Amino acid sequence: MKKQTLFLFTVAMLAGASAQAQLRVEIAGVGNNQIPIAVAAFADESIAPAQMSAIIKADLERSGAFKVIDAGVVIGESDKVDYAQWKSRGADALVVGSVQRLADGRFDVRYRLLDTIKSGELSQLSVAAAARHTRLSGHKIADDIYLKMTGNRGAFATRLAYVNENRRARDYRLEIADSDGEGVQVAVRSNEPIISPSWSPDGTKVAYVSFEARKPVIYVQNLVTGGRKIVVNQKGSNSAPSWSPDGSKLTVALSKDGNTQVYSVNADGSGLRRLSNSNGIDTEPHYSADGQSIYFTSDRSGGPQIYKMSASGGNATRVTFKGGYNISPRVSADGKTLAWISQREGGFSLYAMDLASGQEMRLAEGASEPSFAPNGKYIMYANKGGGRTTLSVVSVDGRTKHRLSTQAGSIREPSWGPFIK
Q1: Measured by CB atoms within 10 angstroms of the end CB, which terminus of the chain is less buried, N or C?
Q2: Is the residue at 27 inside a domain?
Q3: 224 with 88, same domain?
Q4: In a domain, 421, yes or no
Q5: Is 23 inside a domain boundary?
Q6: Same domain, yes or no, for 61 and 205?
Q7: Where is the signal peptide (predicted)?
Q8: Domain interval for residue 396
Q9: Same domain, 143 and 162
Q10: Looking at the structure, do residues 115 and 174 belong to the same domain, yes or no?
């Protein structure tokens, strides 16, 4: 067996450095009732490594919530603005800003969000960052715009974890990227499969399953120090790690006592405890937003269906009833939506359910492995086509879609990281 190589890096490197193979974003659908917003070029933005206005425009366009109008001019954050002019161009809001190099080498990015209807200011923000973090500054400004204009927190300044695999070359990489696919870094590289990455709530660690020991074993990779540790390596299969909302525990699926069942374990690998106890296979556990419940897949009723039980174990209640094959439950961080994969009419599709009403909607066909954005408004999933797998994103209302792909290999097993504090 070939030895696995670990690539060590820091959070700072993740935010700034880029690997050779970036993801490519293709917008496939846009939402209805888009907010028209003009984005001007920032004053002196050419001095920074990243162009702020371009990053902001790309983020807003990708969200599907905005109709972005290219202002075609440079407007600094302190420049006088003719509100009537921009209103006549159909913009409800205008984004202006500037970039300045500070004495310590950092770049100070300042921006203002202006209301052209009421001729006033909606928001302003100043973000100072080192050269390698300037893209993050743009994402933070886009997040602020998204919040002020929609009332919901933006998720542009977040990161993705996914597996990039080339089976012919026996090359499997756990990669980390910005939400727009830029800044790709390799966290783990192996000659054996890697599956099921799961972010810790503080964004400093990723749990995953590796087959390097010729069996599935659960590891936790520290993204700050580059170190990793085995968390669960019991007899049989060790799979499907998912963090509790407070980061103190993982829920996992183990076959050490026969059929695969759901267990909990402390984040340091201690305190292993069995939670489910059925005659079937219980797997793919995922904590609810409040940490009080666990959703999981079980075939105890025949075909696989989604169930819910207390985080301390015990009796489970069935959640899905339509279709004979429902797997991969994921719950949004706001606790409002359940996403899962259902096989109906011969194919696998991504579904979402409003947990308050029980109403469900089919969001995408040919889908697997869903993962929510931390604001609960978007779901990323793996999408197979053309002989390889790519990642796609759809809004929970189904109106907005975009796809992330790479030039070579397949990317799958997405996990959308938490908000960065």
Answers
A1: C
A2: no
A3: no
A4: no
A5: no
A6: no
A7: 1-21
A8: 5-15+158-416
A9: no
A10: no
Cα-based torsion angle of the residue sequence 213, 296, 349, 289 in order, rounded to the nearest 10 degrees: -110
Number of other residues whose CB lies within 10 A of the CB of residue 336: 15
pLDDT value of residue 1? 32
| C-beta separation of 31 from 397 below 8 A | yes
Which residue, among 393, 409, 32, has the nearest Cα to 179 in the 3D structure? 393
3-class DSSP state for residue 136? helix
Contact 370, 340 (CB under 8 A): yes
Q: Return all residues near 72 (Cβ < 8 A) that are at least 6 apart.
A: none
- CA–CA separation, 314 vs 320, rounded Å? 19
Q: Which amino acid is at 368?
A: S
Place of tokens 């974003």: 25
> Structure tokens of 335?
């606790």
Residues 174 and 298 in one domain: yes
24 domain residue, yes or no: no
Q: What is the pLDDT of residues 178-225, one digit of tens each?
A: 999 999 999 999 999 999 999 999 999 999 999 999 999 999 999 999
Same domain, 128 and 182: no
Angle among Cα 158, 210, 311 to the nearest 5 degrees reads 65
pLDDT digits (tens, 9 = 90+) for 64-102: 999 999 999 999 999 999 999 999 999 999 999 999 999
pTM: 0.91
Angstrom distance (rounded) from CA 402 to CA 63: 9
Domain stop point among 150, 183, 199: 150
**Same domain as 218, residue 202:** yes
Token pair in block for residue 404: 């992330």
End-to-end CA distance of the chain: 40
Q: Which residues, 6 or more positions from 158, have their beta carbon under 8 angstroms from its beta carbon?
A: 178, 179, 373, 374, 416, 417, 418, 419, 420
| CATH number where 101 lies | 3.40.50.10070
CATH label of the domain that carries residue 383: 2.120.10.30
Q: Domain boundary residue among 98, 127, 150?
A: 150
d(CA 298, CA 321): 13
How many residues are present in the chain? 421
Q: For residue 178, which phi and psi values (nearest 5 degrees)?
A: -65, 165
pLDDT band for position 32 (cuts 50, 70, 90)? low
Together in a domain, 122 and 142: yes
Angle at 152 between CA 151 and CA 156, to 5 degrees: 130
- Residue 266 structure tokens: 């402390």
pLDDT in tens, 270-288: 999 999 999 999 999 999 9
What is the Cα–Cα distance from 373 to 159, expressed in whole angstroms?
10
Could you count the other beta carbons within 10 Å of the beta carbon of residue 390?
20
